[in-house]
Amino acid sequence: MLLNYFHKDLTEAGCDEAGRGCYAGPVFAAAVIMPKSFFHPLLNDSKQVKECDRTILRAIIEQEAIAYAVAQVDCEEIDTINILKASFKAMHLAIAQLKPKPDMLLIDGNRFVSYKKIPHQCIIKGDGKYTSIAAASILAKTYRDEYMQKLSVDFPDYGWNTNKGYGTPQHRDAIARLGLTPFHRRSFNIMPVQPELFEVEYAYEDKTC
């Protein structure tokens, strides 16, 4: 069962990103302040939740959250500052939108760049441990998936409507045949294609209902 807080008496925001290992598209991040009493049986790390259930959870989180925000950093900036810094920047942009401002940040992962003077706690696999981080993972994932599905209308050969920019065989084949689009991350050295990249991360994408 997910934990509802790290510090009982503080207003905490959970933060997570989506799309860090993708070949294409922005990296998204979400910051969410949930009521400390919130519970939903479907809520978990977004990678462990079916796509249709993520859609259900997104609506519930947006309705029940005390505050939430989603932000993105595009592929050009990812190539300029690197994906790790871009992930932190996306989190910062999301946190900046929160009202009320949190007293504490719960960050999924083992590294973070402090945002202003707000204390933070990095939690490895936190999206499977804390409600607010799990909620952030659902929002970041669903917003990014929606973005990539819209992009796929103009770039159907790359399969972004299903692979969301990860390095699937279809995606790698399209890169080899058609080259890179303006939405590909050139700093990832994906041309020529390197099949071993990100296959583990892709393996748990898009659980169907």
TrEMBL record:
Keywords: Cytoplasm, Endonuclease, Hydrolase, Manganese, Metal-binding, Nuclease. Manganese or magnesium. Binds 1 divalent metal ion per monomer in the absence of substrate. May bind a second metal ion after substrate binding. It is found in: Cytoplasm. InterPro entries: RNase_HII, RNase_HII/HIII, RNase_HII/HIII_dom, RNaseH-like_sf, RNaseH_sf. The keyword Nuclease applies. A divalent metal cation binds at residues 16-17, 108. Pfam families: RNase_HII. Residues 10-200 form the RNase H type-2 domain. It catalyses: Endonucleolytic cleavage to 5'-phosphomonoester. Its main location: cytoplasm. One of its GO terms (cellular component) is ribonuclease H2 complex. Its EC number is 3.1.26.4. PROSITE patterns: RNASE_H_2 (PS51975). Endonuclease that specifically degrades the RNA of RNA-DNA hybrids. This is Ribonuclease HII. The lineage of its organism: Bacteria, Pseudomonadati, Bacteroidota, Chitinophagia, Chitinophagales.
